Amino acid sequence: MQSTLLLVWLVCFCAGYMNPRLQRWLDETRRKRFLPATLGTFDDSAEPLPDADQPLEYTYQSLQDANQSPEGANQPPDSPNHNNTNFCPMPVMQQQGATLVEDADLYPWAARVIHTNWHEYAKTNIPMICTAFGIQHRIYITAARCVYAAKPAHMHLRFGKWSTKVSVKACVTPRHSTKQLFDDIGFIVTWISIAGGEAAPRENFVPQPSKPRTGESYWFQDWVPYDNYKVIGYIAEEKSRENHSLYVLDDMYGSNSVCNQHLPAQKGSQDYWTACVHSCQPHQHSSKRPPCLRYLLGLGHAVLDDKNELVGIVTWSCGNEPTALARRGGLPLPLGVAVPDDRYQQNLKCAMKVRENQRDFCPMPVMQQQGATLLERGDYPWAATVIHTAWQLHTVTSAPLICTAFGVKYRIWITAARCLITAKPAHMHLRYGKKPFKVKVKTCVIPLHSTKQFFDDIGFIVTWESIPGEYTLGGPYLPELKKPRTSENNWFQDWVSYENYKIIGFIAEEKSPENHSLYMIDDMFGSNSMCNQILPAQKGSQDYWAACVHSCQPHQHSSKRPPCLRYLLGLGHAVLDDKNELVGIVTWSCGNEPAALARRGGLPLPLGVAVPDDRYQQNMLCAEALAKDGRADVNYYAGYLQSVCPFSTSS
After folding, report:
1. According to the model, what pLDDT value does residue 486 have?
2. CA atoms of 116 and 132, how far apart (whole Å)
3. What is the pTM for the complete model shown?
4. 265 with 34: CB under 8 angstroms?
């Protein structure tokens, strides 16, 4: 039997040697029957033997040159189709064969992105979520995937040998994103400095690409195969996640076809035509040559050329999980790269505007009070706590308290729109009265045309009729302002300076967040100029002309008189006049964080107030329509609530 097989093989070999046409067919059939990744995946789509009288439609070129790959593999389609492509998330940070950078100051523009507020740095510097790179003063870039779900208030950056810290002001991601954000670069805008003298660097930035790609399909031809790229970025050490090390992996090969050649057999996709980098060229991949076994895995790593200019940002990776690497004997698969395009330029301009914009309507800090009067819950039955937990769990927890709301009509409550933009009605309930009674939320309404950072927006909460054993507030309600302001510029003159306002609202007790207490602070001074008089020196702004209230008048502020040291901090608190009529809702506060208060000896800064306007009246009509709507199904189909109120946003 063995001699027969040997004879057949010799006949075929000799025939192929004598007949170059047949030899070319045999070689091409072998090439087609095994996918380019050379991972042993059999392909039954190989073509049958062609007609001997039919000329071949291709010209075969063997790989005589070890550094040359098949030409056909490098020809991308005019418009890649990624419908069936899965751009996998980056696996655990790890490296093999990369070079440790002993002195991080050699790359001063490389920073670690920590998803922990910088105030907590003494306690922990985890989690590190990605690497970012400084391209301008206070502007860093990273993978959009990293910042898409991150919260700027809970982020800070660290860079250099001494782990200099800088806090984050905002993040920018492309409005028109690609599938799974695989080709999107995000921007991080930092503040100038933080307490203690640490500041964002003003020099030494990563050189940006001298010729960014365009958004057209032919950009694939602009980024030609090249084998002198390098990848640089931080990873958290496996045994100690609080230790972060900077690594460089050089002599990397990049092209638009390498992922399409290696990944389909792994993921079943029909189209991985996209920018990728790998530790060796495609035709060398299966040989398991030592250079091919190198890898550096981490989200947001930078790809640089031999001039140290930015080429792209690492955003995704398929098949590089630890178990998958182990199955392949440590052989990694390519890394996906987002390459700067015209959207990059647009978002850079946006980030620059955010950086230059000095007016920021800061979020409300932790709930706290000083010098306020403790009230009984039943004294103001129309005041309610907004709990972001489903009402069925009331026996388990009454946290978190996210803001205060006030009943203004049957089943209609108002609060700061900021409180509602990230809240989910299905996970909300209200508690009011002395008992307190509970009522579940049907939907929320916020203005369609919102102000910057929702600083001047009042939101509405519409509740259901009742829940078993509970009651819906049937009155009395908070008296609304008899003369709401207009949206015209002269409304500032309508809300004159006045020193007999009072603020009322709930706060969660510091030592026991599940206990909520109702407080009032009276003899408050309100005007439209006070924030602009007091805050610019604190924040560098030129324009804080907005409705504000404070515990004393501006000229008394610096004297630190005892009345000026009073404050009541909480989102959605109501500002009332001496007739207990609604004047506005507290929505923002700058410089009242605990550490900032301590630095000023307990002296607070004014609170920003949203004052009812004509949008308030429109949204009230919307809330009334939703309250009257008889649809009992809480699972509204898409667009139903919006059809009831086309001029508002309902959820």
Report:
1. 57
2. 15
3. 0.56
4. no
